Amino acid sequence: MIPLAIPNLAGREAEYLQECVATTFVSTVGPFVGRFEAAVAAAAGAEAAVSTSAGTTAIHAALVALGVERDDLVIVPALTFIATVSGIHWAGGRPWFAESAPESWTLDPGRIETLLAREVVMDGTGVARHRATGLRVKAMVPVYTLGNPPDMDRLVEVARRYGLSILADAAAALGATYRGRPLGEFGADLSIISFNGNKTVTAGGGGAVVGKAELIDRVRHLVTTARVGSDYLHDAVGFNYRITNIQAAVGLAQMERLDALVERKREIRRRYDDAFEGVPGLRPFPSPEWGRSADWFSGVVVEGMTEPGMKRFVAGLRKRRIDARPFWIPMHLQPPLQHHLADDLTFTEGLWHQVLTLPCSTSLTHADQDHVVAAVRAQLAAG
């Protein structure tokens, strides 16, 4: 089976892991944690970074640090993985599902502006509130879908007008740029990154929050149980969301190869785009003009494909020993989330079942990629 996305552990991972064992620093304290966080901050162009146990816990802690409280509305695209919404839920907030832009598959600034103008009013204290429910609208969580940056300048302008905080779910976007700027300079108050095993750079799991030092200090305090000093005194109900030194060791070895791994992802994306160019019924993933994607996942849009049809298409590829996958089912269609507020999501509802993700591990050989291309063409011809 040609896998969808597996780690590329060809750097100093084994060496660093042996050092962890030799020094007995295998838990949440150890020198690799600080080195890893420094490398992440530098790569993101951010003042500081704090590592967490997962991308989901990074979202949770970051939203708490930004002041999201029970029943606050948090604007988020319906086109995302459920971890984004899980973080909002555990912070006490309520997701408000918004539409994505066809040119990026990320939050559509024009649609957000229209949505807020229609459904939000500023109260006497300058707080944005939902007209119908009176709930406070506190934050916006743009998702960098596939590693694509949203049009952040426009989103930031809208958010500031309504007093909203911005947490960027950049889980798969390390290495992306927006108008020539690195991830930490896109304009979000905080950004999160995931180091899950299927990401371009992995720590075997884990996540990070990047941003201004003052806010990162707040997040760090929360994810280390909000402990004050060396005594067992805690000034808030915090979380035990720390990464281990072992994970950080793997993550640091990966960060040392970040540029090469991201460029390999981009090469894989280019080869798929070139191979499928001009094939009737197929079109490439979007490439927004305002930035450069990290190209975390590669694949193709199969025009006119239905949900059952995509399941059959994927099953056919798996019979050819190719681990292709359909895309995320949108959040507003998920059974536990269907009661939440949602904008008109016509584009999202028409897109998701047409998206086919294809093998894109950084260790993918040209021969295996050529086999995937041939299999997709054959499956398309078979109907």
Automatic annotation (TrEMBL):
One of its GO terms (molecular function) is pyridoxal phosphate binding. Transmembrane segments: none annotated. The active site is at 199 (proton acceptor). Keywords: Aminotransferase, Pyridoxal phosphate, Transferase. Gene3D superfamilies: Aspartate Aminotransferase, domain 1, Type I PLP-dependent aspartate aminotransferase-like (Major domain). GO terms for biological process: polysaccharide biosynthetic process. The modification N6-(pyridoxal phosphate)lysine is found at residue 199. Belongs to the DegT/DnrJ/EryC1 family. This is DegT/DnrJ/EryC1/StrS aminotransferase. It comes from Methylorubrum extorquens (strain CM4 / NCIMB 13688). The lineage of its organism: Bacteria, Pseudomonadati, Pseudomonadota, Alphaproteobacteria, Hyphomicrobiales.
